[in-house]
Amino acid sequence: MPGLGILTAAVVGLVLLVVLVPAAAGRLAPFFWADLVAFGGLVGSSIRCRRRLNRCPPVTLLDVFQENVRRRPRWPLILFQDEVYTYEDVDRQSNRAARLLTRRLGGLEPGRTVAVFLPNQPTYVWTWLALAKLGCPMACLNCNVRGRALQHALAAAGATILLASPDLQAAVEEVLPDLQRDGTRVFYLSSTSPTPGVEALLPAMEEVSDEPLPAHHRAGVTANSKALYIYTSGTTGLPKAAVITEMKLMMVANLGQLCGLRPDDVIYTTLPLYHSAGLLIGVGGCFEVGATCVLRAKFSASQFWDDCRRYNVSVIQYVGELMRYLCNTPKRPNDREHGVRMALGNGLRAEVWKEFLQRFGPISIWEFYGATEGNAGFINYTGKIGAVGRANVFLKTFAPFELIKYNVEEDEPVRDERGLCIRVGPGETGLLVIKITKNTPFHGYAGDSQKTEKKVLRDVLVKGDAFFNSGDLLMIDHERFVYFQDRVGDTFRWKGENVATTEVEATLAMVNFIQEVNVYGVTVPGCEGRCGMAAIRLKAGATFEGQDLYTFTVDTLPAYAAPRFVRIQVSGVGVASGDGSPSDLL
């Protein structure tokens, strides 16, 4: 029967195709399957998020959290010091907080922004949920901001209500008269108030109901509704309020699940909740999968592993500095006696990565790259030491990106005779730009269209296109692994924060003995990022007053932004050449 023979041949051919093509692909492209699986996970996560938010009414991250409340009400959500808060506990506390806010604020209408100025503590989590239940975006103020920067941060997000911690009393009282004059209402989320005229809200919380709130508060919420404002220092100026929509919030909260976060995991978060890594990936990741989050007010290298053992931690969050601090602690016989199986974070240098694994054991490290306001990023799903991800062919179809030639001295992309940007080749360093599309939108900064536009690079590959300018230099090697190289523009990174040099310069220029000042970052052996150096020229007849300058920086600048080195120069204050040795140390 010739028909049967043809069918048999076709089946055999198909089997050979299924078996041999992947095998050949595996030999020619050894990371083919890893690339495909990672891309499948990314697409699946994106589809899941979009389906949720396209429903009527939309299913937001808050709704996912509340589903976990129904499924596992007594499962621990937050562990903090000796306190345990279950999913049900946090839900009820957030209901009380929401009802209290509406009572004290005379009917807090949906869409009104409320700023929180809090350190890491459980109150932060249920306040976030309370505001979400009211349909109000939350502005996450950096606990290090002071004075003019604090006022600017509130104004940028349009926040006229500030919920603060007494731990930040000095910062609050410094700007309180100006805030009250401008109509901003200030409250402490605490049992008592140390500041006359500022009410403490927590005593009244026990008097209000913990019943669920009516759904009408969130009737207008969509995928593009503003959920949060998270502050970032970009290339210049004061902190900018990056817009986090409901869609972006859910996509970022899914990152942990993409990396393998499970419902039975306990994730240890010492990163500040006012940044996206701690709040969205850490706490938000727990909301997504139903896991447990251990919160710590501040990172402690000496107590880190003891905490991991105490709370049965299985997943840790990090930034590069944190891992280096852990490696710098004295070695202990029990360094490998812990249950940590996975680490999620960014900024981990190759040499620290190797040392961490050698000392603390075979922990699966998931390094990622992304900006809070950015429209896409990378995940290192292969464990390649030093890389932030892979530029696989599948990813570029979903989130088109390029590395383009960049003139560091001129601080601008290099363009060809047609006025278009030029791609770099494998092994070359280039500026990362990510195309702005429906899949990868850029929502910019609240209240500042000019700064939003500055982050958009146009006419990159063809006339009329638009890309998000990351401000970062990256390199892709011949195996398509991606490596972070450096930042560009007037920004450097120190202590896990971005420092905007122009803002520091504007602040230091107010010192009475300084004629000119230029601030830049210098490398320090054994430290991540760059440390601040201020090159100054004194006014005629003035003397350098080191103690006065130190006191001024403590009073006016966040600790991470204050220069640690000062170079006194006789003439101009352009970035100094040579070894960058300081002439004084703050």
TrEMBL record:
E.C. designation(s): 6.2.1.3
This protein's name: long-chain-fatty-acid--CoA ligase
UniProt source species: Calidris pygmaea (Spoon-billed sandpiper)
Domain AMP-dependent synthetase/ligase residues, every copy: 65-390
Domain of life: Eukaryota
Reaction catalysis annotation: a very long-chain fatty acid + ATP + CoA = a very long-chain fatty acyl-CoA + AMP + diphosphate; tetracosanoate + ATP + CoA = tetracosanoyl-CoA + AMP + diphosphate
Gene Ontology CC: one annotated term: plasma membrane
Keyword field: Fatty acid metabolism, Ligase, Lipid metabolism, Membrane, Nucleotide-binding, Transmembrane, Transmembrane helix, Transport
Major enzyme class: ligase
GO terms under biological process: bile acid metabolic process; long-chain fatty acid import into cell
Family per record: Belongs to the ATP-dependent AMP-binding enzyme family.
Chain ranges of the AMP-binding enzyme C-terminal domain: 503-568
Record Pfam families: AMP-binding (PF00501), AMP-binding_C (PF13193)
